[in-house]
Amino acid sequence: MHITFKTILNRIQPLNGFIFFDERIRDDRHRLIIDVSIREHKQQKAICPECKKACPTYDHLSEREWQYVPCLGLGVFFHYAPRRVSCPEHGILVEAMPWSDGKRPYCQAMIQFLGNWARRLSWKETAAIFKVSWQAVYRSVDWMVDWGLKHRNLEGITAIGVDEIHVGHGKKSVNYLTVIYEIDACCRRLLWVGRKRTAATLRKGLAALGEPVLNGIQYVCSDMWKAYLKVVGTRLKQACHMIDRFHITQHLNEAVDEVRRKDVLAMTARPRAKQKLKKMRWILLRRKTRVLGKAREKLNRLLSGRLQTGRAYILKEAFCHFWDYRSVTWAGAFMRAWIQRVKRSRIAPMIKVANMIATHEGLILNWIRARREVFTGATEGLNNKARVVTRRSYGFRTLHVMELALYHTLGQLPEPKVTHKLW
Asked: Which residues on adjacent β-strands are paired with residue 198?
């Protein structure tokens, strides 16, 4: 049986109202390209792109070219002279073409093809591999994100996570992005991203989700940033608001590290005593049960001494038992006893963390209440994936491009249906 390229295209890319009627191969700068000509079906009228109704033809434009998905390493281009339709409602417009969207020089199939590869590779690598420009990949991602945001389903969201991502250099508010994630067990995705980490930014993000979504939220996970706490307390009063375990552990580790640095400075004139803290920074940031071998021996020697670093590490390890409680009452009693123990230690960095925990006692105890309903670690997991997106491309020049990359990779956005997929 004789099969032509037109036959293959009719199977994988059927065009209602149009016909593939010619194909030819040309050599363009030592690169073989397949040119496919398209003409309109004589028994069907042109379609208005606005109302999708059949309308009479007004005139024909000059022939245009659209790049299609490569086949066997060969470039494929569609050629067609579009018609302009005379629509009684919308006037004279260029007809709707099922393979094209607006004035883009790429077929929709090619746009989705580039967009899907842009999730796995950097945009620059995608452009280099498929012999297109960086702008072509950018516009493909932009088109897919725009289509996905318009067609995504936000029903059934019961748990969200609110956090910030640091971008650029410096610690100013403009160097942060506020992100809102869905952290339900069945779906974990990016819902919204905005510039700065202010209360106004978070209000804008919650408003973008809509009141029906906000009314259905039962759990909210965030850090202890005051702007976030304030907005969540006023806009999501019905939700159980909890502090993420990751942020509490982070503050405890930072306090232990601060104590270690102070001890090192105090022992500058005592080189032998200073050996106890040499190469101990990363060991002290780990759980004791995960420190093995010679590192465990060094840690035991440090804990048996009288240095404040060892005492701070013991206090940090003691608080880890809080996360094993299932009763809110007993967890609260343990927390208050631990806070009193820290205050008696007279270690300033640890006392600072203890005061912070006492201030947010109710929100931290909510973690115990919701531990079986929500996996709060999903927020930091998604944040780590967001950092991978930015590192993969060595950063982005504008925040708008970064927002597109985050939506595209983490948003789990729907895509238009395609007639043919690779196995």
From this structure: none
Whole-number mean pLDDT of the chain?
88
Determine what percent of the chain falls in helix, strand and coil, rounding each to the nearest 5.
Answer: 50, 20, 30
Token look-up 């976030």 returns: 228
CA distance 161 to 377: 9
Residue 300's beta-bridge partner residues? none
Residues with Cβ within 8 Å of 145's Cβ and at least 6 positions away in sequence, in order, are 404, 407, 408, 411, 413
Instruction: State yes or no: pLDDT of 301 exceeds 90.
Output: no
Query: Which residues are within 8 A (CB) of 231 and not within 5 positions of it... i.e. 6 or more apart?
Result: 199, 202, 203, 206
For residue 283, report the phi and psi dihedrals to the nearest 5 degrees.
-65, -40
Tell me how far apart the alpha carbons of residues 59 and 95 are, in angstroms, rounded to a whole number.
11
Q: What is the DSSP string of 243-264?
A: E-HHHHHHHHHHHHHHHHHHHH
Whole-number Å distance between alpha carbons of 123 and 129:
10
β strands within 239-353, DSSP E: 240-243
Close Cβ partners of 375 (under 8 Å, ≥ 6 residues apart):
183, 185
Q: What's phi and psi for 57, nearest 5 deg?
A: -75, 135
pTM for the complete prediction?
A: 0.85
> What confidence category does residue 259 fall into, taking pLDDT thresholds of 50, 70 and 90?
very high
Phi, psi of 395 (to 5 degrees): 90, 165
Direct distance between the N- and C-terminal alpha carbons of the chain, in angstroms, rounded to an integer: 24
For helices 361-370 and 328-345, give the axis angle rounded to 10 degrees: 140
* pLDDT higher than threshold 80 for residue 61: yes
Asked if 181 contacts 189 with a C-beta cutoff of 8 angstroms, the reply is: yes
Residue whose structure tokens are 């590779």: 121
Mean pLDDT of 222-241: 91
| Residue 326 CA, distance from chain mean position | 32
Q: Residue 264 contacts by C-beta under 8 Å, 6 or more apart in sequence?
A: 274, 277
Residue in this structure with the two tokens 């102070």, named with its chain if needed: 262
